[in-house]
Design brief:
Aminoglycoside 3'-phosphotransferase, Chain: A, domain 2, about 40% helix, single chain, 5-stranded antiparallel β-sheet, 10 strands, Phosphorylase Kinase, domain 1
Length: about 300
Amino acid sequence: MATRRTVDHSAIDAGLVRHLVDSQFPQWAALSLKLVDPAGSDHVIYRLGTELSVRLPRHTGAIRQAMKEYEWLPALAPHLPLAIPVPVEVGEPDFGYPWPWAVSRWLEGEVATAESLADSSRAAVQLAQFLTALQEFVPEDFPVENASEDLTGRPLADRDRTTRAAIAEVAGAFDAVAMTELWEASLSAPGWDRPPVWFHGDFHTGNLLTVDGCLNAVIDFGGLGIGDPACDLTIAFTLMSPESRAVFRATLGVDDATWTRGRGWALATGLNAYTSYAAVNPRVAAQTTRQIAEALVG
């Protein structure tokens, strides 16, 4: 596996962003810049004026996202029932910053929380409708016969070694036997046997925005791809209670095999985040503990 190159957060400061914006998009030179904090682990984000945002990748794993979103999100947006961040420009490396970066429409909202939405059947239905609309979106050349690596989903089995290692690592905090049983069931479940569909690829609580307690937007389409949509079922275990999860599943019409694979995705991604960040981030520790526990519940 290639070593991931990272740019330190502090190096992507307001001065650098100001130089990049002013030199490449002078029409926005008069707009204010304000750091969005906390941002995600992949990007440093600045609000540009009141209607735009600037997103700069922090590591090589995120450097293709700007072009992917620029290519696909404007076409997707009119077909989806929740707002998404439509890119308006892609900037070039300059002033020592090494990668493409993006300017997108600003979306208002606060990050969704299980505390506010776990028991909401309305939110469960909205999210199921969003995924249904995403999966039904068909561009003229769909399915993309020679889809780039960026659009090709990784199979769940690719996570086998790291997931089993994570299970062993956290055995004192979670039920290792139950996690192993779920993981093996998800790997042995029948695969997706229908035409490939679009998936968000990182569909969890942190990528949902709410306004006045109601869902407003879905963000961060860096994992957007074509294939098995089971990975997007992760939202059922990061956000929902068993009751709202049942509403979500019924509205989306998920079969047993896909649901089992979705539980496997929730377990694998939850373990990855827990082992990477829980020791240094109490918020991530709480969120991923809930995600793993809900995945085990089913």
